[in-house]
Structures are given as C-alpha cells and as structure tokens.
Amino acid sequence: MNQTQWAELNDIPEVAGKPARSATSPASGADEEKPKLPPPEAVGIGLLQTPVLNDPNELLKYRYLCRGGGMLLVGPAGVGKSTLQMQASLCWGIGREFFGIHPARPLKSLLVQSENDHGDLAEMRDGVLDGLAFSPEERVAACANLLVATEDMRTAVEFCDEVVEPLVALHKPDLLWIDPALAYLGGETNSQKDVGAFLRNGLNPIVHRHQCGVIILHHTNKPPSGAEKPKWNGNDFAYLGSGSAEWANWPRAVLGLRSIGGHDIFELHAGKRGSRLKWEDEEGQRSYIKVIGHSTSRQFWREVPQSELDAAREKPDAEARFGRHKPTMEEFLKLFPTSFKKEPREALLSGDQVKVAFLKLGWHRDLYKGMYEQTEADGLLAIVRGEGRGGQLLRGLPEIVAAYTARREEAGSIMEQVPLKVCAKRRKPPKRR
Fold first, then answer.
1. Going from the N-terminus, what domains does the chain have, and what CATH number goes with each?
2. Which one, out of 29, 36, 145, 390, has a CA that is 20 to 30 A from the CA of 279?
3. Helix (H), strand (E) counts: the chain
C-alpha cells in the first residue's frame, strides 16, 4: 500500500468553516434530516457579461476550461496517462503550451493519485523536465506549481470530504487532478446514480467553493476492433470513458487518447469543446486531433512528425497494427462526385468531409494530404477557397471547380438564375514506375 500524505487521519489540518457533509453522506440517525441548499439564483439573460480579455476565470484558452469546471482525460490502461498528466501540469505551471493547449497564465496544480509511488512520480518528473529541456529557472518554477498527494484508502464521500476538501482549502490550486477516477468513485462506473453522486454532489461543490478546475483521468472501455474500429468519429470521442454517460455529460471538456499503431503512436482527440482549442492541420484548417507518441529516450510525450507516421504506415505489419488500409488513387477519386443537383458546391468536399469519409471507409486518415497533393499535381483534382471570410479549402473534379468559380462570378446577375448542369469525368491516374 502506498504511503499517504497524512500518516494519521488526525494529522489532516482542520479547515475553518468546513461545510456540512454532502447530501450523499450516510445519515447518522434514521430521523436526521439532510442539510438543504438554497435554490440557485435566477439572472436575467441580458445581465450576463461577455467574458473579457484576460478573464481571471479562464484556466485553459480559449475558455476550454474555466474555474468551477471539470474536464476528463480518457485513455486505455497502461499507455502513460499519468505521464501525460505530469507533462501537462509541469508545462502549464510555467505558462507553457502543452500540445497546443495554452494556459491562461502559469497554473498551480494539485494532483491526488493512487497508482504511482514516489519513485515513479520522480521518474516522470525528470523525464518531462529533461525531455522538454526546461531551463534551471523553469524547473524550479514548474515544480513549485505542482503538489502531489497519494491516497489509496478512501473513496466516494470520505474521499471528497476528508481528502479533497481539506487539501484544496489548504493549497488553493488552480487545477485539481484526480488519477484515476475508478480509485475514488466508490461505486459502479456504469451507474448514473453513483457516478453522478461522485461528480455532481461530491466534487462540484468543492471546485465551485474554491474556484478551481478539476481534471479527472479515466480509463476507456474495451477498445473496438474489426468492423467497429473505424466508426469512432468527431464527438463520439467524448464517450470514450468506461461506464455511464455521466462521464461524458458532466465534464465541460473531454480529451481522448487512442492508439493508432503499436504501443508508441496515439491520437489525442479533443472530443468535446475541441473547437475552442483552435487547433489547425497542415493546411490551416480546423482540427480536433494531435498525433503524439512516447519518446524513445526519456519518459515524456512528443508530437509525432508526419514523416515518422508515414514511415510507420509503410511497415509490413502496418495494416494489422493500424487496422486500416491505404486506398488506391482510383478509390480516392471516387469520393468526389461527378455531378450535382442544384449548385456546384454540392459536389465539392472540405478537408473535414474527406477525413470523415476516410474514417468510415477504414482508410488511413493521415494519408489524405499526400493523396490530395498527388491528384492535384496530376490535374485530377482542383482546389478552390469557399465563400466568406476564412472560407474552407474545397476540392473536386476540375470541371466542378470551374463551374463553382463561374457561378460565384455570376452572383447578382441574371445568369445566376440559369440552371447549370455539369457532368464531369474522372480521369485515370497516370501509371508510375
């Protein structure tokens, strides 16, 4: 059993004005009434204030997580979620971004965990500090902003009232981390009643009272395989956590970690509120995915370059490991329609539409960029920017793109009322040696 931060229960410091036990606490007597909270205040919608620049309630930009809010970090068992937590909290402790997630300012973190002993935690710390080349001054500041408490005995109400409440009141962190969820739930992970009581009745009052955010590490369900594997898409990743849908409904934000090949390469999915992170892909388009992997030299996570990902997919066992195959050029071109009913825009595809198609068809999602470039160089596809400020890049067969461009030029004229019909032909890709 790991050594707890408080050797004896009597050593836990008393907190002035500690609130009564939560409504989920067992009653000491059969006739004892549970404490009642007043109803929430109703405020006119017109009185609400738009958040200002440098909002003190903002923890992770751009309002991805704010004080009083919760977030879930979900991933398979044993892949390094604790190291990912260590890296995030050390980076955010000095105001440094973590895989494109920017803190609003240097953040103080309190980690309550049950699985790693002090030696494990020290190895993670050193791996991150060395691997990310923290300067001596940064090391001091980062470590000063991360406190760790080990607790492996109390769960549910006792955990919230006797562990979390006094620690948060004493140390006043910006972020409370809990690793892992199931060590402290004290109930059934599939039970909405048990999960809701832990999250909403146990943790919510604490983070609201002390104005901090909370990030919970949680395990995924058994990973899908075979025909089910490619079907995860978009907001589906908010539901990666094992058990009740409360694990997805309660948090303001969800990050999901999923292996895409062996034990080294993973996708980090922003499955809920991901647009607020303002991630972009190589083409400057909005993205909800970062490809990350384990370092081969130190215990830390790194962003995987496209060249390394491409090389991994070319290995003989890549299809078995990644669970998806590489489409031919002919298969790729069949994604793009040859005609439309009313407007040419119907037959043009955005980057997100192509990514979704790749996932549904079981193709390697990261191959689409190279196939774009090749088909455009061969004149098989054309590219155009959509309407409006910051319009998306759209791709389609050359005749369709030409019709779309012509239709835009006709906007406001009588020609705009003339029905337009185009039937494009897919040309065969040139043979390559």
1. 56-312 (3.40.50.300), 329-417 (1.10.10)
2. 145
3. 14, 14
